[in-house]
Please model this.
Amino acid sequence: MTTTTTPTRFELELEFVSMLASPTYLSYLASTKILQQPQFVAYLDYLQYWTRPPYVQYLVYPVATLHVLELLQREDFRKDILNPQVVSKLAEELLEGSKRRS
Amino acid sequence: MAASEEDTTVLNTPFLNPPSFWQSFTTENIEAYRVLKAEANGSSFTVPKDLENLQPPTLPENGEYTTFGEKRSLDTPLRDLPEETPVLRSAASKTASPQHLLNLTRSMMLSYLEMLHIMAINPAPPIYGVKWEDLRDLFRNTLHGVNSYRPWQARNALIKLLERTRDDARTEIAEIQGLQMKVDDTLRQVMQNCEEIAIGSEDKLDHDADPMLGIERNHGLVNGTTLIGEIDQHSKNMWTLVNNDADE
Model:
């Protein structure tokens, strides 16, 4: 960060949900076992406010971000993302999605 | 401001850790927040400091915010062309016409060929430089023209999205109606069978009872077990039908 001011909670959470759109980051999160913690699962549920206005308009890559946020609400996905094959499949899916839209 | 210890842990991982706010989401905190929200009943309420992280953050002022070190704003107007670039547009309209964009692309190709031609004869920069500048202006104008379509593109993307949602809803309604018809058919069949059984038992009653006494014809009692068995069978059939449809 180039700015000296401390980032606000809004900015921190925006950056975090944006990072979720990266399959590699998801696989890293899964490897830390954080996805199995009930508190973190509750946090993911709370983060769904990004799917609603006015917050949704601040997302830079809304399609990928919202897709992953939706997937993360499911327990089986939170377990399966540990599997590298699932990670690469998701990466393909997101890439296809962005291609289809352009 | 962060403790040096924290810095090292961040550096040790290949990725950033999630913001620490998630640690506030304990069962007790969630319950406390839920109670507060229920008490407020839709109106605004003050949240104690320890529960602050459980409600969505306040929006940035003026719609300006920083993300990944980049300043962003919700309101990004179309920037004008740089002053030194001539505006290559005959019509004064806001959006470039498709014909204009096509013309620009053709001019681009022509300028490129001209530049190549000049370079083949004499590759000194001062000579081909004029064409080079032409090309730059053409590219800038084209980009500006394409960008002027952004509001139009946003509107059309929204229209497409809404149309898709509408079509999905219509398919769903059609499916539900199909299922309803199937259920109706089955129910009608059940009714028909019931009537048949009832008629059968009525015949039996007619033989047994004295019609002159006007005995109430209670079919269910006479042939109760068979009737209930039939109904059970039919409701089983109906549920299999509904389940099969739900699986599809």
In short: The two ends of chain A are 31 Å apart (CA to CA).
